[in-house]
């Protein structure tokens, strides 16, 4: 039996506020949308919180015990006799009771089930695209082909033959669920389950679609248009809601696209700024020069002032990564002064004269 207190990491005397804080912390940690999320644990945490946050449900849960051994009206889950009941029959398999699915029993018993249909959801899928450095800065649109389970093109997901229409499900009489009685250690317990024929929809096609055999979905190749936003970084993920795999009588999953950015030969990114190196001759560094530079926006001319230092950085505003529609980062130009490995006799004489002048 599940121990909801242990699931949330709180003791049995925990206050509602402590239970809520524990739930928020674990739900944030295990949420399926997070990179390190865990859908199974997220559902377990949510189930525990739904019971322990409700006073009536918590009271019933506390009355019937927890995973460390519960007393159900004279029945001991520890396996030994309690209040005159002999459990030896359960151990050798001769007992007539059907334990069934205890999870479903408690869901109905505590009011958490009630035959409500849990929404069906298609599988999330992922793929990768490769873009240029320039496209990562300014954004771009891409089209890709993905083979996945999608809504049937013939019946548009209804599962019905064109013009045949829909009829009420005879199995559940259009209710979408079936009521049944289970014989358990608590006695006969009435419960409901989703109709397996109509999957909870309460209706079925009069004639099934020949393309998808009535499933409403089929596996096929589909073209997907991707909008890659300006300023995206290498390795970032784009989530496209409803572009994953479809499922009959349910919602479509999501598509996750990992963006791989090809490195640039000149520019590197630092936040919203772009950085590049510029090699200057010694004479250019001493006397200054107007230098043409090919940026991602096209060619510009940068004025290198006289007497710049090695590793000095020049800033060109507004030529970096877009921050908003009207604002961009800057282009940072790191100046490298290239010293000659060999000099001529004339150059040496000129340098000697500079040396005498203290330069």
Write the layout of secondary structure elements.
Blueprint: H1 4-8, H2 16-30, H3 39-52, H4 55-63, E1 71-72, E2 75-76, H5 88-92, H6 102-109, E3 125-131, H7 133-138, E4 140-151, E5 166-168, E6 177-184, E7 187-194, E8 203-205, E9 217-228, E10 237-240, E11 255-261, E12 268-270, E13 273-281, H8 282-287, E14 289-295, E15 298-304, E16 313-316, E17 331-338, H9 345-356
Mean pLDDT: 81
* Secondary structure: number of strands: 17
Corresponding CATH superfamily of the domain at 143-225 and 236-251: Heat shock protein DnaJ, cysteine-rich domain
The best one-word shape is: elongated
Low-confidence stretches: 66-116
- In what range is the share of β-strand residues? 25-35%
Q: Indicate the CATH architecture of the domain at 143-225 and 236-251.
A: Ribbon
Q: What do we call the CATH topology of the domain at 143-225 and 236-251?
A: Chaperone, DNAj Protein, Chain A
Main β-sheet, spatial strand arrangement: 12-13-17-16
Structural class: alpha+beta
Give the % helix. 10-25%
CATH top level label of the domain at 143-225 and 236-251: Mainly Beta
**If you compute it from the alpha carbons, what radius of gyration comes out, rounded to the nearest whole angstrom?**
35 Å
InterPro entries: DnaJ, DnaJ_C, DnaJ_domain, DnaJ_domain_CS, HSP40/DnaJ_pept-bd, HSP_DnaJ_Cys-rich_dom, HSP_DnaJ_Cys-rich_dom_sf, J_dom_sf
Main location: cytoplasm
Subcellular location: Cytoplasm
Family: Belongs to the DnaJ family.
């Amino acid at each position: 039996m599940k121990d909801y207190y242990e699931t949330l990491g709180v003791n049995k005397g925990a206050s509602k506020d402590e239970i809520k804080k524990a739930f928020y912390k674990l739900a944030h940690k295990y949420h399926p949308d997070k990179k390190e999320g865990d859908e199974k644990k997220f559902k377990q945490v949510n189930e525990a919180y739904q019971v322990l946050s409700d006073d009536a449900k918590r009271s019933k849960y506390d009355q019937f015990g927890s995973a460390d051994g519960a007393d159900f009206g004279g029945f001991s889950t520890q396996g030994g006799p309690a209040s005159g009941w002999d459990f030896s029959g359960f151990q050798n398999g001769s007992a007539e009771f059907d334990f069934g699915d205890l999870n479903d029993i408690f869901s109905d018993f505590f009011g958490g089930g009630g035959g409500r249909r849990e929404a069906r959801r298609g599988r999330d899928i992922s793929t990768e695209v490769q873009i240029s450095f320039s496209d990562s800065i300014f954004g771009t649109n891409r089209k890709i082909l993905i083979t996945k389970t999608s809504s049937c093109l013939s019946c548009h997901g209804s599962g019905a033959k064109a013009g045949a229409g829909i009829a009420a499900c005879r199995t559940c009489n259009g209710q979408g669920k079936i009521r049944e009685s289970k014989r358990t250690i608590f006695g006969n317990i009435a419960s409901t389950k989703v109709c397996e024929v109509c999957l909870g929809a309460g209706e079925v096609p009069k004639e099934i679609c020949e393309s998808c055999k009535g499933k409403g979905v089929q596996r096929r190749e589909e073209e997907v248009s991707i909008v890659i936003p300006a300023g995206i970084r290498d390795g970032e993920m784009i989530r496209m809601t409803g572009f994953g795999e479809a499922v009959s009588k349910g919602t479509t999953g999501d598509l996750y696209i990992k963006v791989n950015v090809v490195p640039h030969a000149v520019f590197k990114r630092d936040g919203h700024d772009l950085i590049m190196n510029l090699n200057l001759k010694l004479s250019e560094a001493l006397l200054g020069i107007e230098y043409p530079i090919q940026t991602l926006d096209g060619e510009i001319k940068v004025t290198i002032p006289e007497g710049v230092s090695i590793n000095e950085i020049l800033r060109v505003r507004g030529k970096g990564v877009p921050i908003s529609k009207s604002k961009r980062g800057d282009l940072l130009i790191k100046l490298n002064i290239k010293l000659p490995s060999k000099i001529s006799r004339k150059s040496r004489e000129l340098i000697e004269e500079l040396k005498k002048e203290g330069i």
